[in-house]
Predict the structure.
Amino acid sequence: MIEWTIIGGGIQGCTLANYLIKSKLTTISNLAIIDPHPEPLYTWKRCTNKINMPFLRSPSIHHLDIDPFSLEKFAKSESGKLDSQFYGPYNRPSLKLFNKHCTSLFHDIQLVNSWIQGRVEQLERRKQLWHIKLADGKQIDSKNVVLAMGLSEHPSCPSWAKELQIQGGNINHIYDDRTPADSNPARDMLIIGGGISAIHTALKWSERLPGRVKLLKRHPFRVHQFDSDPGWLGPKHMNSYTKVTSLSKRRQIITNARYRGSIPRELKMKVLREEKEGRLEIIIDEVSEASYVNGEMKLNLKNTSIITNQVLLATGFHSSPPGISWLNSTIERENLQCAECGYPIVSENSLEWGENLYVIGALAELVIGPVSRNISGARRGAEKIVKL
Ligand SMILES: Cc1cc2nc3c(=O)[nH]c(=O)nc-3n(C[C@H](O)[C@H](O)[C@H](O)COP(=O)(O)OP(=O)(O)OC[C@H]3O[C@@H](n4cnc5c(N)ncnc54)[C@H](O)[C@@H]3O)c2cc1C
């Protein structure tokens, strides 16, 4: 029997693992992290590497350790100083430094000893324990379970794009793990989206294929330093949010608070320079119809049309609760409560959904608010679960 099992070894699951160990709520031999990938943060690294993201969007105090200054201290240490790079007034760490700090934390707590590679398919309550079944047939009994599945496995594609894909068009979502590794396209590249993922992707490809890359976005640049107002990180907005009892109202507040498709100013400046110097074309328009003929895709936009032989979608993730399909039978059997939006109704103090069953990250957003999926949300979620 295991004391604590975390399902999902991304930013959220690994932050909680670190908090559980460092606050001595459990030991590494009494902890299991189940994830289909071979190592911690695999999906995070895949997504951020895919777009060549040099710096995080969040400040240096947002990381996976308990001490807010842990990353800054690491940057001054022997192992961190070689990659000690920060950007701008908010001290945004380089991706390399952030990842190295994570590796160092995982090494300190020997996280590898709790890692179980596999995919959970079933969760059942049996005699005061949670019985976990994995796709490979492995079974684990655990006193406590934390659901930390994120949205990164669920890229969202517009319906016209799915249709083109079925017809054989070379069109892929950047975060679909079936998307083939980068290879230079035969002729040109169209990138669709307006958020940081689209902009980083456009910058990456305009360098590789100068003059042959187009970026199609639906709206003018939305410039915000962070993806929601920093007031959501503390009492400024959270005090009134926690007083809202209607969960559909909370959902609406979360949706309105997120600056979807927004980018920090420096990215806007970089991409405008690419456009000015002729390496990138930026089009503000929307696809109304698409067809695939003789190896080429024709996209009819509201004002013009584009013919291309390769499309990369940077169109975000689905908003449905991660894991909900395999959790359905657990929800029914254990009478677990969900809000109208399908997300778990959990305790405000400890994110408990059922007896000894907790959630963190996307699944905890009706309590943690708009930042729940982010690194700061992982910290807040972990604090609640370990009751720091
Ligand atoms: C490009 C990019 C840049 C970002 N930059 C920032 C930033 O600078 N600052 C910030 O705060 N946030 C940032 N974010 C947002 C957020 O912090 C990340 O998306 C973060 O990786 C989410 O972590 P997660 O653990 O919720 O999800 P994931 O990374 O998706 O990890 C969840 C894990 O659970 C596993 N899993 C799913 N189902 C099962 C199952 N049934 N059984 C076992 N395991 C399962 C998945 O395979 C996955 O490995 C960024 C996001 C992206 C995409």
Remarks:
- The CA atoms of residues 232 and 238 lie 6 Å apart.
- Residues 159-224+259-313 form a domain with the FAD/NAD(P)-binding domain fold (CATH 3.50.50.60).
- The chain has a mean pLDDT of 95.
- Residues 95-109 form the longest helix (15 residues).
